[in-house]
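Records of this kind hold a single protein each, on a pair of labelled lines. With that in mind, the following record should read easily:
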Amino acid sequence: MRTILISLAAGLMVAGSWTAPAAAEQATGVSYAQIPSGAYSIVAEIRAKPGKEAELREATLPLIALVRNDPKNLVYFLQEDRAAPGHFIFYEVFATKADFEAHNAMPYVLDWFAKLPALAQGGVQVMRMEVLGLGGR
């Protein structure tokens, strides 16, 4: 699929009907090289109580900027199920478990967790993972 898209983009550029956006030329953010082998990653899931989908989304969206600005956070994505609004999946990567635990002790994270009993069904389900495929793993 990636090869097809690259070929299509190359063909459009040759034909003169498409140019790459400036942002694509100056990509920023985390590079795979910055993620250490064995990094500590989290895949977490939470579901809103019926009728609380918008409130949970509103309480959760500010986490994106806050977590991404945490110098110990390497990757953070918040995703919402298109077929089931109010069903959120978090993907987070930290260099170490200690970095993740320090993140969870931040006041904004504790504040978010304190809101969950009123907004979420059953709390957060968490899978603690290890990043593979880096540094020869």
Notes: The mean pLDDT is 84. The chain is about 40% helix and 20% strand.
